[in-house]
Amino acid sequence: MNQQLHETKIKGLNRHRVVKPFSELLTCSINDNNEKEAVNMNHWETKREAVEKLMQDATVVRLALCDGEQPYVVPVNFGVGEGKLYFHSGAKGTKVDILSRNPRVAFEMDADVTVVRHPEACHWSMKYRSLVGTGIARLLTDPAEKKAGLDRLMAHHAPGEAFPYDEKMMTVTHVYEIAVEHLHYKEAKGS
Ligand SMILES: Cc1cc2nc3c(=O)[nH]c(=O)nc-3n(C[C@H](O)[C@H](O)[C@H](O)COP(=O)(O)OP(=O)(O)OC[C@H]3O[C@@H](n4cnc5c(N)ncnc54)[C@H](O)[C@@H]3O)c2cc1C
After folding, report:
1. What is the pTM of this model?
2. Domain residues of the chain, as ranges?
3. 24, 47, 152, 180: least buried by Cβ within 10 Å?
């Protein structure tokens, strides 16, 4: 099992969390009734591929943050690592403020979203692939880690291409890693 211990100094969170590959964080539903399928190893493999494909195809992740009792949602671009998501941000603003107080996030991403028409209103449906999950965001301060996170982001949008980084921009850019704790994949084919 490809596990690694991830240390966190965040108050109220477990000191050592086990960061697992996406395939081990996953529950799934692949039918239109939102029923969870029985899980066996073959299913994990199938779903792992589905999750990886969706993460490749989605361009935006919507982050849900929590400022005390006040929820806040914000869309950002992202990159993917084993069991982790990466995003970048300006150094100031609402999401950065909230994350400094509460690094817990929920997120959603989707692809192939289509409204499926029907002559009767009650039979209209949606076709989509989507993921929702939760995790803990960590601001990357080590320059090598920060660049590696940005590399993930660039690779997501321009796989195999290399671009130079502006050192001045790097100093004013925040890069976050989200250690994913739970994932749920859902696919609806439209009826
Ligand atoms: C498709 C897409 C991809 C994006 N990718 C990134 C990214 O990779 N990194 C990044 O930092 N930002 C990205 N943005 C912009 C991002 O959504 C935020 O607007 C930005 O990061 C500022 O967030 P903030 O919390 O600091 O807002 P603030 O600058 O503090 O915004 C002030 C107020 O504006 C409102 N607001 C903030 N964002 C939005 C929004 N998107 N739409 C409507 N109202 C808003 C909120 O009510 C907020 O309270 C992206 C936006 C879109 C639509």
Report:
1. 0.86
2. 4-189
3. 24
